[in-house]
Amino acid sequence: MSAPLYKIRAQGRFGFINGQGEVVIEPQYLEAEDFYNGFSRVRFNEKLVPMDTMGRLLLKHLFNFVGFFEESLARAQLVNRWGYIDRRGDLVVDIQYEDAGDFSEGLAPARKSNRYGFIGPDGAWKIRSQFEAAREFSAGLAPVQLVEKWGYIDQEGELAIAPQFDDCQSFQGEVAVVRQGKLWGLINRHGELLAEPQFEIQEGYANGEFFDGMAIIIQDGLYGFIDQEGELPIPPAFAFAGDFGEGLAPVEQHGRFGYIDKAGSIVIPPRFEDAGLFANGLAQVKANGHWGYIDRGGEWRIPPKYEGALPFRDGLALLAYQGRWRYIDALGQVVWEES
Questions:
Q1: Which of 27, 76, 116, 179 has its CA 20 to 30 A from that of 167?
Q2: Pairing of strands 133-134, 142-146
Q3: According to CATH, what is the number of the domain 241-339?
Q4: DSSP helix, strand, coil percent of the chain (3-state; round to 5)
Q5: Are 56 and 73 contacting, i.e. CB atoms less than 8 angstroms apart?
């Protein structure tokens, strides 16, 4: 696995540094995404093109769109049809599908003649196209839609959980989110309801997505948490909540932010103007209009003097200082700064 790279900015162009602050890809692109599974996507000739960690662009073919690499393949669109490329940029599954998803557990959902099935890495149908819609496999099951209702199939294409839901998502370990009307709940791999659909769906929100074993729930405008057994260790009681990280989650009470543990106990009293995710033992919080970082005891480790701050990632954090980007380490030492 290659060492992490971090996006930098110089004169409106983007490039990347390594963890020591050394420039490894010169800032030259008007748009660049963070690396994922060994590739970024950068703007080149008005298209987003995959780029590897050595700065090499996959230019053997130019597509309208290229997705993320999953299981060494990425879906690629040309005009209104889809195929797949490998990590060298070679087209390994011909452009032919009306729609295509990512590979997972050796299969990818694809659509032909307005019906979805699942293909293998060679492009051959492993589960014939017969569904109105389909999503990626996880834990041996995939969500599919039949006659306007959603259920799950196994890798042989047999129904494992009968279509009965208005919508459902891929499994996260042993649980999956299902929707009835405008509410979501949880099922297990046997299709049994762990939590009846009762939680509000928020547009643009990660409804039912688990972080650190907990997912945010919203009822009557209040935030709480559900675990992967379907229990509510933290009933809805907060004006706002963020995701758990390293056993702690930010919550809002009376207009101030603090942190709770997985039992719902306040461990860092609400006294901040805003708060983010714990990572690498630190979390970004806002006080007196500026951002800094606290430790798990609520003590300042990096004083608040920044206009913006992101969570630590692989030992570094990106901040905004006097309008410039800056990366710091966990001791607050500057590793790289925009000139």
A1: 76
A2: antiparallel
A3: 2.40.128.630
A4: 0, 60, 40
A5: no
R_g (Cα) of the chain, nearest Å: 22
Please state whether beta strands 324-328 and 317-321 pair in parallel, antiparallel, or not at all (unpaired).
antiparallel
Choose among 189, 206, 125: nearest CA to 151: 189
Rounded to whole angstroms, the Cα distance separating 292 from 307 reads 9
Amino acid, res. 194: L
Q: How many CB atoms lie within 10 A of CB 202?
A: 10
Residue 11: both structure tokens together: 């004169």
Q: pLDDT, tens digit, for every residue of 20-56? A: 999 999 999 999 999 999 999 999 988 999 999 999 9
- Quick check: 205 pLDDT over 80? no
DSSP, res 41: E
Farthest-apart Cα atoms in the chain, separation: 60
Q: Report how far residue 86's alpha carbon sits from residue 134's, in angstroms, rounded to the nearest whole number.
A: 23
Q: Please state the φ and ψ torsions of residue 122, each to the nearest 5 degrees.
A: -90, 0
Task: Give domain limits for the chain.
Answer: 172-238, 241-339
The set of residues, in sequence order, having a beta carbon less than 8 Å from that of 204 and lying 6+ positions away, is none
- Chain segment 64-90, per-residue pLDDT in tens: 999 999 999 999 999 999 999 999 999
CA 37, CA 70: separation in Å to the nearest integer? 7
